[in-house]
């Protein structure tokens, strides 16, 4: 079983920045490199949507179109940590942000929330004047 804990959410003004962190842990022998690590978000009254992912093994990266150039996902496999750096935040970025992980997901399904076995509790990001 993989445990995921997000942190770093908060209230920022439009144009501001936040850094979200996802700490992963499991039984002995756990290797973050074996897991695709993704961020999803859910705004009030909206469906949960894909934001960014770094794939297992190769570490290839995909982003939601609306966050390209503003958000950066990265991983530190040695520390079992995934980061989402969010810059130039917009009100439409307001949502609960969730970390997700999966070791068996295929490349074509990396954006699909239904493919991820493990989820964190979420952290609130609010962008408002």
Give the helices and strands, then pairings.
Elements: E1 3-7, E2 10-12, E3 18-25, E4 36-42, E5 49-54, E6 61-63, E7 71-76, E8 81-86, E9 95-102, E10 118-119, E11 123-127
Parallel strand pairs: 2-11
Antiparallel strand pairs: 1-3, 3-8, 4-5, 4-9, 5-6, 7-8, 9-10, 9-11
Structural class: mainly beta
Helix share of residues? under 10%
Biggest sheet record: 7 strands, mixed
The coarse silhouette is: globular
Let me know the number of strands: 11
Radius of gyration: 14 Å
Mean pLDDT: 96
Q: State the end-to-end distance.
A: 40 Å
pLDDT < 50 stretches: none
Order of helices and strands: EEEEEEEEEEE
Strand content: over 45%
Total DSSP helices = 0
